[in-house]
Design goal:
The chain has 191 residues and is α+β, with helices and mostly antiparallel strands. The protein is built from 7 helices and 7 strands; from the N terminus they run H-H-E-H-E-H-E-E-E-E-E-H-H-H.
């Protein structure tokens, strides 16, 4: 069931790229190559962002990049990524941007707020490769945090809040795991 959700996301991604005339592939090869490198390097990681939403939601969701949380950026296996066809695009204080095979954007973050979630991932099998994905509860917390961050673009914050609301609608029991502050964020959304 989870695989079919990723397949739907990959199909939506492909349509987006085809309509723009950019390419005809999906994130699938880059995600598989990335997971192989990270597992072979014994890097503790979690796929976060839109790809994680694709795994946890039944409603289709597309995203153009792959976001990865790691404990520390110095743990990113740069040489092995480059050997697998990834190219470093830029380094920042808490993130690194890469381009994967077929120029799929990959962003690593070492955001301290995500560190404990790295130990609570779920495993998703994609063509026989283990993909470590942030768990549903941690993803909900992260989407609410990102959705209330005034430093983020408004469009990104709104998408994060929509993702959080969607996760909660599909799994209402998650509301019990929310703090009072997080519930207030959701309660403030237009009905």
């Amino acid at each position: 069931m989870v695989l079919s959700r990723l397949d739907i996301g990959f199909a939506l991604d492909r349509q987006w790229y085809v309509l723009r005339g950019e390419m005809e592939s999906t994130k699938r090869p880059a995600l598989i190559a990335l997971a192989k490198v990270l597992d072979e390097s014994q890097t503790l990681y979690a796929i976060i962002g839109g790809v994680a939403v694709q795994v946890h939601r039944t409603e289709p969701r597309t995203t153009l990049d792959i976001e990865v949380a790691v404990e520390r950026l110095d743990m990113v296996p740069r040489a092995k990524l480059q050997a697998a066809g990834f190219r470093l695009g830029g380094r920042f204080v808490h993130s690194e941007n890469w381009l994967g095979p077929d120029s799929v954007p990959v962003q690593f973050t070492d955001d301290a707020a995500l560190a404990s979630a790295l130990h609570r991932t779920i495993d998703v099998d994609l063509d026989g490769v283990r993909i470590r994905v942030m768990g549903r509860t941690d993803l909900l917390h992260e989407k609410l945090r990102a959705g209330s961050d005034p430093a983020r673009r408004r469009s990104k914050r709104l998408q994060d809040l929509a993702d959080a609301q969607g996760l909660l609608e599909e799994s209402p029991d998650l509301r019990a795991d929310l703090s009072e502050h997080e519930r207030a964020i959701l309660d403030a959304l237009p009905s």
